[in-house]
Design brief:
- The chain is mainly alpha-helical and 191 residues long.
- Helices cover 47% and strands 12% of the residues.
- The chain is built from 9 helices and 7 strands, in the order ββααααβαβαβαβαβα.
- Strands 5-6-7 form a 3-stranded parallel beta sheet, covered by helices on one side. The protein has a two-stranded antiparallel ribbon with strand order 1-2.
- Helix 2 packs across helix 3 and helix 3 runs parallel beside helix 5.
Length: 191
C-alpha cells in the first residue's frame, strides 16, 4: 500500500492517495484474505467517510478562497476519487455546501480519475467548454484527468505529492488553494 510507518503517511505512489476504493479495495481484500471484494470496498468507503468526519482539517481558509473565486464569476465543483457521500459530507463539515453546485465521486456514474469523466460532467453541468475548466488537485491522477478532458491542470503542493511528481503533468503549480485567486487574475490578464 506504500505506507511509510516511520512518517505515518502514505507515499505519493500509494493507491490510497489518488485512487478510489475500486483501485485499492481489491488489494485490501487480498491482504485481508477476503474474497468478497465488493463488500470490502463498501466497508472501506464507510470507514474512510467516518474517519474523515472526525479528522477533517482544512488547509488555509477554503471559504475565503471559494468566495474570492465566485466573486470572479467562477463556478465551483468537487471531483474526487472518494465516494460521493463522504465528499458531500466533507464539503458540508467545512461549511462549503452552498459554494459547490457539483460534487462527484468515483461512484457518481462518471468514472474515476485519471479518466476525464468527472471533469467533462462538471463542464456540462456549468455549460462550459472543457478548455474553460480547471481541475485543481494534488495527485498525478488529477493532472491526467484534467489533460484527458482538455482542461487546465493546476497542481497544489499541499498533498503528499511533491513538485517533482506533479509539475511534468501540470499547467500550473501552486503551494495551496490560497494562491488560486491570484492565479486566476494572472491568467485573465494574459488573455
Amino acid at each position: 500500500m506504500a505506507f511509510d510507518l516511520d512518517a505515518a503517511r502514505f507515499a505519493p505512489t500509494s493507491p490510497f492517495v489518488g485512487g478510489s476504493s475500486d483501485s485499492y479495495g481489491p488489494l485490501c481484500a487480498q491482504a485481508l484474505g477476503r474474497a468478497d471484494v465488493e463488500a470490502v470496498k463498501r466497508e472501506m468507503d464507510v470507514a474512510l467517510g467516518e474517519a474523515v468526519r472526525t479528522t477533517l482539517t482544512p488547509i488555509g481558509d477554503p471559504a475565503r478562497v471559494c468566495d474570492a473565486l465566485q466573486a470572479r464569476g467562477l463556478r465551483l465543483g468537487v471531483a474526487t476519487n472518494d465516494a460521493e457521500r463522504p465528499a458531500r459530507d466533507q464539503v458540508g463539515i467545512l461549511g462549503l455546501s452552498a459554494r459547490f453546485g457539483f460534487v462527484a465521486g468515483y461512484d457518481s456514474g462518471f468514472g474515476e480519475k485519471p479518466g476525464p469523466g468527472m471533469v467533462l460532467a462538471f463542464a456540462r453541468a456549468v455549460d462550459a467548454a472543457p478548455r474553460r475548466v480547471a481541475l485543481v488537485g494534488d495527485s498525478t491522477h488529477d493532472m491526467h484527468a484534467a489533460r484527458a478532458a482538455g482542461a487546465l491542470a493546476v497542481a497544489v503542493l499541499s498533498g503528499p505529492a511533491g513538485r517533482e511528481e506533479l509539475a511534468p503533468f501540470a499547467d500550473h503549480v501552486i503551494e495551496d488553494i490560497g494562491a488560486l485567486p491570484a492565479l486566476v487574475d494572472r491568467l485573465r490578464a494574459a488573455f
